[in-house]
Records
---
Amino acid sequence: MLTISDVTKCYGKNTAVEHISLDLDNGLYGLLAPNGAGKTTLIKMITTLLMPTSGEILWNGVEIHRLGAQYREIIGYLPQQFGYYKNNSPRQYLEYLAALKGLPTEGLRERIEEVVAQVGLSEVLNTKMKKFSGGMLQRVGIAQAILNDPKILILDEPTGGLDPKERVRFRNIISAMSKDRIVILSTHIVSDIESIANQVILIKDRQIYRNDTVSAICAELNGKVYEQSMSNEAYEAFEGDHFILSARQEYDGMTVRFFSEEKETEGRTCVPNLEDFFLVTFR
Amino acid sequence: MRIFRKELRKIFQFRVIVLFALFAVIFGYLFFAWQYYPGYYVNSAYDVPFYEELVAEYGATLSKTEYQDVLKKREELIDQVEVYIREDIVFQENDVTTYAQFQESHAKEAVTDAEMAVQEETNRFWFRNEATQWLLFRIQVLDNMERDVQFGRIYADEDALRIYADFLNSNSYEARERLKALFMRDEMSLLPDAVYELLNTDFFNLVILVVVCCFVLMLPYQISDRLRGILPIAVSTKTGRRIFGKQMAACVVTGGIVAAVLGGIYSILLAQKHVFVFWDCPLSHNPYRLWVDMTMGEYWILCMVLLVGISMTGALLSYFVGRLSSHYITGLAAAIPAAVIYCAGIRFFTKYMFMIGDMYFYRSYGHSLFRTFGGLLLLAGIAVTMVMVLLRRDKERDL
């Protein structure tokens, strides 16, 4: 189990995150917050890139900096800005990272081919990465993160630049992996985690706001999310009085999804989703 | 070891090696003295081949007996040049018939038209007539040897050293004893001045070249890892922050490889130029009086060993600069003064290494034999300390 115990991180007078406490066991955790809320700071503390100002992070009861290489051996990390050598092929790059991860050379070739196949890049295994698209590069990043079969897989904004097909593929890979390890998926794109996360951790005002299942979080908005059709002219007035979650232009007007604490007579209630909760929380 | 090899491969990229090779060739053609050898001085084109002949005949040194034999050659050469003098019309018209008269005419200040004509003719004999040049510069070599012997700088005894009493007494006890031992040698080295000057000059040129090459190789290696965002992934692996130590080690080894390759190539070029004919000749003769007895070959080997050490220290410096630079512009801005200061420090400690008498404080005799080593170790110590502080900081700082 990964335990984050009352962790705070300050940069001078600015506090990035404070009093973060979490217990993480096998499963997929979606770390959801807007840009600049502290997700990456928390991620970096988990991956030992940053030192907490106070508090500690424990793996099976032992502080991770004390564990050192023993802890880092079991993590796989895909940072927000994925770094690579453009004149390397995926094979060369993964061989380099395998050396850094302490993987033995015996069986390495097969392991590299296995992870590359998992992310669908077998055909370009020996092609220089300067020829890759953004999505292909991201897949290489995922491949390096899972290369050492980590017990803790941390992915920071992994779906940036991926098209819908690649996004679905990515979700399937990650979801399958979360059965027997901790997967932390940090993102501000709600759809990335809505369908696959076992638990969602929302960070607001530098602290944990919610830490629960998707259904439990969404249930808080039961009866408060509505949908209504109206003319474009009516929408202009409606927009000023209500908190709009989404507005879709139809042929004969607008279909508006909105949030209301009070009971609305004109609109029909909808099943709230995680994006609704995100928008309402961080309005 | 695997990581270390991969880091070395990251440094020695094909494009960077090509750039480094191109720079080395251009620098070599612009600044190295070896390409002028043996024309290092005006007369060395004649001196050095003559010394080569003497070495082939007598070995690395001349004993007193052998020197007497060599003096006979001087007489033969003078006889030959006097034939040319007597055949010359200008000299005939001005009653210059002997070598001694020729030398006197060449040396004195010409006032009259006749004297100017004679002097112009002596200049022609020295600088524009192949046959007489060949003879005159050889005679000059032997004249210089004779002057050293006459002034008690070689083959001296206690009586001969009396003329140096004031000079010797102005030195420390150690320097005085060393100078006396050098003056009283009974073996004259056949190493030409031009060779020592060449080695000394080009040693420093090699220092500049290896230091620049270290920065050319190291800076892109360090800065690109940071710019590409490789470090967060690398530091979060099992290797962790030890990657910085491994990268530092790769840099140091690279410095050694650069020095070995460049020093090796340069040594091959010297060998092709027959410089190593003088390998066994002692570095004991005026003006390069050293504290220790060593041959030219031993001196060159020592230079190469020092070059490797200097290069490795330069690599540490370039690693330090690269680690602290956020992009190529700041890296270059920091690298230039760092390299200049480092090379200036090397120059200060290695100009005429191990010589009695300091080239900068000429009167300050009695400097420690180990000034060179001490100075270089100081520079190395500073570089090592800077890098160790950096590595220690990297163990704990936020990335």
---
Amino acid sequence: MKFQINSPKNQITFFLDSKLYPIEAIYGAAYVFIDRAYIFLDGDPQKEIIICLKGKKKMNFKELEGLQGEFYNELLNYLLRVKIAKRNKKVRDFIVGTALVSGSNIFDSSPDGSDNDYLDDPLGIAVPWEDKYKENTAKKKKQDETSV
Amino acid sequence: MIDHKRVNYSKLGFFRFKKLGEDYLLTNDVGDYIFLSQKDFNGYIEGKLEKKSPQYEELKRKNFIREELNLDQYVKGYKQKNQFLFSTGPSLHIIVVTLRCDHKCVYCQASSCSVGDKNKDLSEENARKIVDYIFSVPNNNIAIEFQGGEPLLNWPVVKFIIEYALKKNKKEKKNLEFRLVSNFISMDEEKMNYLFEKAVVFCTSLDGPEELHNQNRIYIKGNSYQITIKWLKKLLKKYKNYYIYQPGALTTVTRRSLPIYKQIIDQYVGLGLDNIVLRPLTPLGMAIKTWQQIGYSTSQFLEFYKRSLDYILELNLKKGLRFREMITTNMATKILTDKDPNYFELRSPCGAGIGQMLYNYNGDIYTCDEGRMVDEEIFRIGNVLTDNYNSIINNQTIKTMCLASCLDNLPCDNCVYKPYCGTCPVVSYVESGNIFPQLPNNSRCQLNKGIFDYIFKKIQKSDKIKKIFTEWATSRYQFNKKLC
């Protein structure tokens, strides 16, 4: 892995392949270090991102190298976070949306005094057509068979 | 180390995570959590956990497995945990009845002035307008909290507000509650009996043993500690067996408190109080000027907190005492129950303007208690003499505060403690000149993370401690109703 340490400037510079690491993961990982280092990001988001970490306190060669190692570990964590968040975005939007829409009457009874839940279906609207008429269709079929 | 080539994303429900000690801690959007060893964590993210294993069962039950997600349960959990989002306007209304105060506390955040400065008193006329305004808020729950300065120095107006609010409430029929934050210097039998009759909830400041308390809370005309203790004892005796909510006390932790945590806790226990709030200093008001003398680093406070909590747990475990620390209790409620304590600083968005409002002696309205403590007027949102509730609640400042404290908009969204945490835009502003917190430099972030880490480590290590935390958390849902 390419890296450059500039001890007098108290900084380490390294390079990340943008195809391996999405920019959101790089931002997330970089943010974790803002209490310990000044962060400089550069490069081309389509090809390569250049990361420069400049220690806020004086660091020796090993400590600067360690900072890079920690950055890579954090990057892996953020990669997982970003992918999980993307994969679950729709279902999470649905959960929050449903909760918010139905939430206004969360602790209230409905106007008629009953405690209908938003999932209740008193008119059977949510029952699939096939299930709703399965019994009738079966009965009719039997009757037809008998009459024949 | 995570091997991304082996992760099976199709199996993973949404979760946040961090390594805590040897294990991974995972949380989800409704605040459920699970600890997994490195091996089980790898098994989980690779989709290779044995379906009959207890870990898989727990992950499934808590909706961490995507294909086994129970959507109904999740939606209900989300609503329950965020019920404050559905409240119809602020419920806590803090009235500064005067800025006058007989104390000169070293950490005063309230811009108090001298006792003789009666220009800083709330007038009866403005008090009436404040109460009218409060009753125009659509929320059916109203808590009016008297603050100062020292509110008892403007006793006629305190009494007027109580009487006027009770009169209005005969028609409005809201759940009305009064609270008083006082140092008790101006308390007498008549006032105490009146406030008792009106079921007023008391809160005072008690910083610890006499020497420490009097060093922090300077009262030139007498001994602040002895007066506080005298009235606190009287009130505790009077309220016992009558009200569920007992008079309470807060300790503000200064540098001098750090080594004597045991004496502070012992004193609270000795007085018969059932809880203590280990409140860290906030860099607001006078505390900014005195920080060099009384302040400390976040890590020093965390060390103090850990020792104090260990000692309190020891009292619970070994001596069978039922005594709790309230910051821990609020956090434990979020972690271990399906309820939310509606603690304004630990919710997203915070309570500024939408959970609480503060009314200053001149009728000015602020987003929150902290908002009035900043010298500039940036958290002022109007005045009861000129504005109505609709114009106030649509104020840009309130919307901005919501935006700045909504953790989903912040890097906090990636933090494992996001479901339990909150941020204070006022403190962020004071610390960094920006209401959006710059994490992880933000002191509240460091503090909350440190406390959450410690609580989770305790829960992870000991079922007995988890049981104690659960008891602390579940016994708080009571109301201030007369027992007899």
